[in-house]
């Protein structure tokens, strides 16, 4: 971690208001999943090409996210079956500011993902958000229970010239909200590259390729739920779980 902090300190800081100039209304999103030991070399490679978001003078932002699902895990199984028009419902807390949001993500049958969110203290109870839930999903608060707690630390890199953002997630841990069983994924790193469709080359893409990191998606909720629930059907995620286990051995 000390190597990572040293490299991050060399990247030009950027404020939230400056970062918001990169709107990315017509964008492509690509995820990369790899062993965290490679991250310092990758960041060192692109340090001069990107700025890094600082909030309260800190580039490392801690997130806590609770994912909700029905008693029968309808949203989990929709993802596992690769169904179109599927949902995720989560509550996210930005621990640096204690800001809280209720979010709904919807993926349509064309592969496009839309996100809606409102400021919402979790202590209010989901039934207080029924209007928001019904407007943006087929669920109401009474149908949903807390399923999975996800914690991680995020770095956000921005290329103002090329119109690009990259989120870098490390220190990932996932806990079952019912049993408190947890899994430690601190050996992996997830980078999500968000680029304007009109962009051509990307320093981040070139750095990832140089260190033999290739695109691979991962749903924190789905993989985490599959990893900590031995009784749940995980057919579609077995290959991904084996891949994560191999990364631990590198």
Overall description:
The chain is an alpha+beta fold and 250 residues long. Helix 1 (2-8) runs parallel beside helix 3 and helix 3 (39-46) runs antiparallel to helix 6. A hairpin with a 5-residue loop joins strand 6 (99-107) and strand 7. The model has no long low-confidence stretch (mean pLDDT 89). The protein is built from 8 helices and 11 strands. Strands 1, 2, 3, 4, 5, 6, 7, 8, 9, 10 and 11 form an 11-stranded mixed beta sheet that branches. It has helices at 2-8, 16-19, 39-46, 74-80, 130-136, 203-210, 220-228, 238-248, and strands at residues 12-14, 27-35, 51-53, 61-69, 86-94, 99-107, 113-119, 145-159, 164-176, 182-185, 188-196. The chain has one domain: Alpha-Beta Barrel (mRNA Triphosphatase Cet1, Chain A), CATH 3.20.100.
């Amino acid at each position: 971690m000390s190597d990572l902090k040293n490299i991050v300190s060399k990247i030009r800081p950027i404020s939230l208001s400056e970062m918001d100039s990169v709107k990315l209304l017509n964008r492509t999103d690509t995820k990369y999943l790899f062993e965290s030991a490679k991250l310092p070399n990758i960041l060192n490679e692109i340090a001069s090409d990107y700025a890094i978001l600082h909030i309260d003078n800190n580039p490392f932002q801690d997130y806590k996210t609770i994912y909700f699902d029905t008693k029968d895990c309808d949203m989990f199984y929709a993802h596992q079956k690769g169904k179109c028009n599927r949902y995720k419902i989560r509550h996210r807390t930005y621990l640096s500011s204690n800001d809280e949001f209720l979010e709904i993500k919807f993926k349509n049958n064309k592969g496009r993902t839309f996100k809606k969110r409102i400021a919402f203290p979790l202590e209010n109870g989901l039934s207080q958000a029924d209007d928001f839930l019904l407007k943006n999903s087929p669920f109401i608060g009474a149908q949903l229970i807390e399923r999975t707690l996800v914690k991680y630390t995020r770095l956000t890199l921005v290329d103002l010239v090329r119109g690009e953002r990259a989120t870098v997630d490390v220190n990932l841990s996932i806990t079952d909200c019912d049993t408190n069983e947890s899994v430690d994924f601190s050996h992996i790193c997830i980078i999500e590259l968000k680029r304007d469709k009109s962009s051509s080359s990307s320093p981040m893409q070139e750095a990832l390729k140089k260190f033999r990191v290739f695109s691979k998606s991962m749903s924190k909720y789905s993989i985490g739920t599959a990893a900590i629930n031995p009784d749940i059907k995980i057919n579609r995620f077995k290959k991904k779980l084996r891949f994560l286990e191999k990364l631990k051995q590198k």
